[in-house]
Amino acid sequence: MSWINFPPFTSSNIASIRYEDAQAILEVTFHNGGTYQYYDVPTQVVEDFKRAGSMGAFLASSIKGHYRYSKV
């Protein structure tokens, strides 16, 4: 797998985000240490996520509850 890291950002909840475009896996690591992978996330959604004013708000409204996920 070839992961693409998000550019640096500031978030009170999210520590890092990366995306594997060949398999459409979005991986989110939280400051509390938890890491989740969301599956079948389209590239356009990932691009919108990168431009979001609030990473946490975008995750809550556009990722969680919309895509299958697992805790890593």
UniProtKB/TrEMBL annotation:
Domain KTSC, residue spans: 10-67
Any single Pfam family the record assigns to this protein: KTSC
Family matches, as InterPro entries: KTSC_dom
Protein's name in the database: KTSC domain-containing protein
Source species of the chain: mine drainage metagenome
